[in-house]
Amino acid sequence: MKTSLLISTYNSKSYLKAVLNSIRMQTVFPDEIIIADDGSSDGTAEMLINLKDTFPVPLIHVYQEDNGFRLSRIRNLAVKAASGDFIVMIDGDMFLTQNFIHSHIKNAEKGVLTQGARVKMKKRIEFSCYGWI
Prior knowledge:
Largest sheet: 4 strands, parallel
Distance between the termini: 33 Å
Shape: globular
Oligomer: single chain
Number of strands: 6
Mean pLDDT: 89
Radius of gyration: 14 Å
Strand content: 15-25%
Strand order of the largest sheet: 3-2-1-4
Helix content: 25-40%
């Protein structure tokens, strides 16, 4: 089963970079990552270009002009660009635990939509490119 990870973002380059770093730590990688960009002008495109060659899976940047909040539209465009049989959608400020992708694939069921919610941490946890600190 080919898996696409769709990440929505808007002018949050530092958050997106942290999310991408958490993806580097996954025990199982998605087959591709689609960045659904709702009109960022903060250097997001340049950051993604710089990461493409060193990232473990293809990064696909789907962009639309900033014309107000159009999250649903950019998500739809990103889904259209995805080649996976299974699509996992997250927001661009969600730090993923190491088994996030593995757990989603393991629990996938044909014809079933799974929805989750984020958890706000009470205690500060720091992360480096080598794992939890």
